[in-house]
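Input sequence (349 aa), recorded before submission:
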Amino acid sequence: RDLPRPEASVNAFGALYRGEPTRFYVGSKPIFPGSTERLRVVVGQTETSYQTESTTIAVWIAVAVLVAFTLLALWAEFSLRHALKPVIEIENDLGSRAADDFTPIIRQVPSEVARLVQTLNRTFDKHRGLLEENRAFIAQATHQIKTPIAAILTRAELLEKEVEERSRDSVKDLIVRARYASKLATQVLLRATITYREIVGVREQFDLTTLVSSVLRTMDPSAEIKEVGLTLLSPEDTPVLLDGDRIAIREAITCLIDNAIEYTPALSDIEIEVYETDNEACVSVMDRGPGFTIDIAQLSGFDTSKKDPSHVGLGLAIIERVAKSHGGRLTISSREGGGSQCVLSFAVS
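Predicted structure, token format:
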């Protein structure tokens, strides 16, 4: 009864109600159909209450919008990650490859990415073909180089017996350099072959102890000529299994033992041991030679500062390359009492 009375023609008005600004709304309708008298209803709300409710509604709308935006962003991120997952996997695959690894990408990918993978594989095939051509060229060139070198070496060895004493040193130097040239040509071909096999990805499981034993039997004649003994410390009936390129690893071990034979003095022994740690298969070669004066990290294959050409070559660089391609390393250290120990290690799963 204490509500303000509105004017007859207004639908809304403002007034003070119990000391507070209040907004009123007026509604009316006939008391019954056809009646001229009307029933008027007046509803009011204080400005304070109105502002409070408006603020509450605005806050809830803002919260709803924020939650919806967050959910939308999470859904968009999930969708984007799912869509880009094949691309990320390809990126990781390419990022973990060696610089000369051109093996094809073999994985299921969406049709949108399939064309990219096909293009990459075609590019890899071209590079692999180019490398194969280079390998074949190096093999042919090596053969063409070794043939005249062999002729020169044979002629020089015959000439050594015929020349006068004052010319014999020059002939001996020619023989040394011819032998080095022949050895270097062989190492160039070996380096190209190993690189190609890395790209092709040749892998098989084999017993490293059996492989080393086979290498030693092959190298026994060379050791006998130098009057050097080869001793395998590991029992042959204790296998050390390894997954890798058997031929490349055999060549690396051959280079390592050949190097030891070359620099070990006569009537000395070279000790070879095959063993396995928690995550590596290792071949240790211990000799009583002059040791190494180079840092394995500085291996480049050639050292033109050396006066003796027989001390120059690709052998250690090839060994290091094979080790790295199998997740391993070549470690060189000096032995107490003289000589060196070379440990060739390979990662095992």
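Checked by second reader. The chain has three domains: 1-95, 97-201, 202-349.
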